[in-house]
Structure prediction request, 281 residues.
Amino acid sequence: MLVACDSAGLPRFPDAELLRLGENALFALPDVGTVVRVARSTEMADKVAKELSVARWLAGHGFPGVHPTDAPQPIEADGRLVTFWGYVPDSSPPASVTVLAALLRDLHALPDPDFPLPVLDPYPIMRRRLEVVSGIRREDIHFLAEACDNAEDDFRALVGSSPSHLVHGDAHRGNVLCDGDRALLIDYEAAAIGPRAWDLVPTAMAVDRFGLPPTDYAAFVRTYGTDVTEWHGYRVLRTTRELGMTTWLMQNAQSGPAADEFALRMESLRKGDLERRWHAL
Prediction:
């Protein structure tokens, strides 16, 4: 990160605040109003370029989001790709599901972008995680690989037969920032062309998995205008979502709370328990 900051003309900040660690590491530099996003490797070049393109396109349509800075980007440093984004201090309580629903409703009302986007397909990244992960039991990796094999054909058939448009790809309350009274939808790394239902599934499944009150989900449905659980493809998309969430967590599940949560999720997946409570980390 420090090498990239030098290249972008930013001062070095050894005490930069780590905001998030997943597919990317996000560091806040509040004094210069910048968030530094560090991708795991240069193999993510296409995804990084897509995220920048989507962010700039959304800004051109006046959609409320976080914009990339004017720094030349992405920058390759130490085998990683680094991008720079506007910093928004998020001191408000977590956004409500109705705020998320309104953002998704407005996003889905936009025309499809005038540049190519990939068709929604989370399976390659899930398989890549399984190939490179270390410190996870072999039987867990084998189970997840087999689960992907069993679910992938149904997912592809559903996507191929459904109307497809711009989707955010990773739509949950954690990707909403509140800048004063203005809510911003962030993180366009998973943006794709696919069924809009994909963006609605995380909130719907949160009732079973994360204890979202049914009354809150009802408010989400009223605001957005559709109940995805009534759609014939809901179960297929939910299965894929849960595999994605579990393989994402797996990357940092060698010890501590993440390891405990990974074990819990694996047990529920093995048992086919759709109501076992999961915990957001």
Q: What stands out?
A: The longest helix spans residues 138-161. The CA atoms of residues 103 and 185 lie 7 Å apart. Residues 16-86 form a domain with the Phosphorylase Kinase; domain 1 fold (CATH 3.30.200.20).
